[in-house]
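Annex B, item 7. Sequence and structure tokens for protein A, then protein B.
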Amino acid sequence: MKPSIKFTQCLARWAIAAVALAAQPAGAQGGPPGFAAVSVETVVVKYAPMESSVTAVGTIIADASAMLRAEVPGQILTVHFHEAQRVAKGDRLFSIESTVLESEVNEARANVNRSEAAYERAQELQQKGLISGTDYDAARANYDVDQARLRSSTARLSKTVIRAPFDGYVGLRRINVGDYATIGQQLVDVVQLDPLRVEFSVPETLLAKVQPGLPIDVRVDAYPDEVFSGEIVAISPSSDIQGHNLQVRANLPNKELKLRPGLFVRVNVTLGARENVILIPEQAIWPIGQDKTVFVVADGQAHMRVVRIGERQPGTVEIVSGLDVGEEIVTAGQMKLYDGAAVRSVPADPAASE
């Protein structure tokens, strides 16, 4: 088995330190008098504010989307829209040939009128005691049945006009004027483009931090220089068993209609800002095996110290424990150091730590 790259790097660092120690007289600490001190770049540990965030990848979805289908068979007589047109709820989109259904409605209405008159006569005769209760109930039942048939035929007739179910934009139609539509055949989709939703996942360890109301920033490849802002509206009540992730949904305004459902997005969730956090330049961290160490400069000597790190930001690392404010740490030149090496501090270039 080949040794890992990290293990090989650690061996090299300890070898350099061992050679430097062997070159010194026995008992030397930081080199004997007159021994040249190593020049290193250093910074002083300070408190700084830190904005916590988490990044994820997700997908844009429509807040409302529907594929309209034919509910009654018939020939398409009229298309009332242009593709990609904005429509309002209730606008007509298609008209289907309805001659047969109109005849059924007229027949049902005539039957209702006839049975209604019979029912009214039965009421008069029943009040005078001239007909039995059975005959009266039959007249009433006939009237109720005819009314139900009229409502049913009227409902079928109404389905010959396909209307927009909500405000949105129509897509590409799947049928032309003159085509015969069958029940269930796709006609056109209607999509709401403002607002949109974003769905993404975060690790379940962030359950206490990711909450509804937190702001998000969204980037898409189609507009690489733009950032779209949204807000988390809901978090799944259960965690994904396989990936141990939480499904998150956010609201994403789209007034300029630049975004579309289905786009792949990169999401940044702002978890909140913290004050008085110890942040140090990332290059100050010196890995030794599984430990994360830094060299602390005190009285002209560099002392290796194990630290525990927290969150990372571009160029900086949070130190949870192991360092105190006011201490001086090495940010460049660690390859030449060992615990107790004599050093000469040179202030770090601020631009190099950005």
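Protein B:
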Amino acid sequence: MTIPAGIDRISFYTTRYSLDLKLLAEARDVAYEKFTVGLGQAVMGVPPPDEDSVTMAAAAAKPILDEVGVDAIELLFFATESGVDQSKAAGMFLHGLLGLPARCRVVELKQACYAGTIALRMAALMVAASGRKALVVTSDIARYDLGSPGEPTQGCGAVAMLVSAEPAILALDPEAGIHAEDVMDFWRPNYREEAVVDGKYSTRIYLATLRQAWRQYAARTGRTPADLARCCYHIPFTNMAVKAHDRLLKEAGITEGRPALIEAAVRESLGYNRQTGNTYTASLYEGLTCLLDTATEALDGQRIGFFSYGSGAVGEFFSGTVVPGYRDHLFTEKHRELIETRTRLTVQEYEDIFNLCMPTDGWEYSFSQYRTGPFRLSGVNAHRRLYEAV
């Protein structure tokens, strides 16, 4: 049985610049295979100075609103850990850029990479009760110190989801398994632009959280991995999803044929992330978008499993059923064109962009115009961020 709400549209966006990790490996004197085989990454998305979590979120949401309009939107949840203000919700900038109705509730949500999932779950419950529509947007920039172990997993991107009481893409199941625990595996203090991560510890916590969340989900539903046609995971790097599904199969007592089962369950959800790098709150739903866009077999009527993880830490395992005819409501060609036409940077160009800092003195600044989506951050004046349509 499913709750009468879910994902009606889903749209992905990443910036127009990227860095081939082969170039980064050469510059850092690291074996390229460490990135491609060890992490499963090939390219990272790079945000120019006039793009941030707000402009990416707006760019992701625009194709949806161009198609369905804004009049029915009564709720906007903006999930991000790349917030732009300590008080004003980034969603308010987004509300203005998208021209959403004044009666629309707006909230910014943060719990590391898990925030997008709680936003989706809460939006589905509110939509089921009201019959109106909600917009859930996940948008983030993953940023680590130059030369650090996390550098090759950097990335950026956003996913917007229209949540409807009669979804055209995915109907959510009501059951979920949850695990929360106070740990310090990944964090970013207010005084730092770059995140701090204990990589090996974070991987252990991710897998331990998955195990506990799956146990609860399985107990509540009676389902096994065989009941899930595919699985999508939070993807800090693509090989994490491979490790996660292997752990899930072991937890379910499956010992034979695991490599083939892992390949069948997760491979089709990893392609976009391999080309963009980590997108934090967006990464799970970037994986779903990739699966829907690229699956060789139609997924109509199939149940998909999801594991959402946010460092610190909260994890949730849940599921949903793909609605028949879903392919008629995707933005597949736009997504492919976006990834294929990005400008490739040199390592020096990437480092120059990385080292540009947002001014903090409150003076007036105008930002040079780079290749962006339909919106950009044009400057800062008296501590006010200035956004514009391109």
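Comment on protein B: The domain at 6-389 is CATH 3.40.47.10 (Peroxisomal Thiolase; Chain A, domain 1).
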